[in-house]
Amino acid sequence: MTPIQRRAALLAGAVAAAGLSLLSLLSLPSHAADHADCPATTDDHPADITDVYAWHDQDSVTVVLAFAGLTEVGMPADYDASVLYTIHVDNDADAQADFEVLVRFGQSSAGEWGVQVEGLPGIAEPIVGPVETVIDAGLGLRVFAGLRDDPFFFDFDGFRQSLDEGALHFDSDRDSFAATNVAAVVVEMSRDAVTGDAGRLAIWATTGRK
Q: Looking at residues 4-31, what average pLDDT do you find?
């Protein structure tokens, strides 16, 4: 693997500046984004993480790794078999991943894309299936990979105008990411298998190339 290409994290609390995030099992989820970087850092579109989202309920923890943003509606997802996507989970507050979920994409001889996910807690075998399909592996494990409407909201025009004029000009009805898609990997895991006795999780994601 080459050095990490992109990194994104769910931000919360004082550790946000360090690129590590805490998901409290007693609080609402929070998120951060990395969209529309300068060209020098976004040439590798399939490896460019836009967001990491995470939330939980009484039974499950769900993590979304979004990448290859600003995809126009009607355009295919930008998958790449050479990119390894890794979701890191720390469940004992030592800032080290206790398990890692590894995601790869591949094409069949017919040119159809599929996804392989391994390292999920509670199952030894990888989960494999087609993209754009919810794959239910049992044991509280479900996987989805495919295009989705980008949920990130930001007013770029207002941001630029605010910088130029030195006063805020944001419009809550103006979304620069409207009508764009993002590729997403969604994993749903058993809360008990993920957390153990921990009251918090730290979750972050990286990409790398073979």
A: 37
pLDDT tens digits for 173-198?
876 666 778 899 999 999 999 986 66
Q: Are strands 60-72 and 83-90 parallel, antiparallel or unpaired?
A: unpaired
H or E element at residue 97: none
Whole-number Å distance between alpha carbons of 142 and 112: 21
Please tell me the number of Cα atoms within 13 Å of 1 on its side-chain side: 11
Mean pLDDT for the chain overall: 80
**Can you say whether the dihedral through the CA atoms of 60, 135, 149, 108 is positive or negative?**
positive
Using the 8-state DSSP alphabet, how is residue 38 labeled? Answer: -
Find the distance separating the first CA and the last CA of the chain, reported in whole Å.
Answer: 5
What number of helices (H) and strands (E) belong to the chain?
Answer: 2, 13
User: CA 32, 210, 11 angle in degrees (round to 5)?
Assistant: 10
Q: What is the total residue count of the chain?
A: 210
Instruction: Take residue 78 and report the two structure tokens written for it.
Output: 């930008």
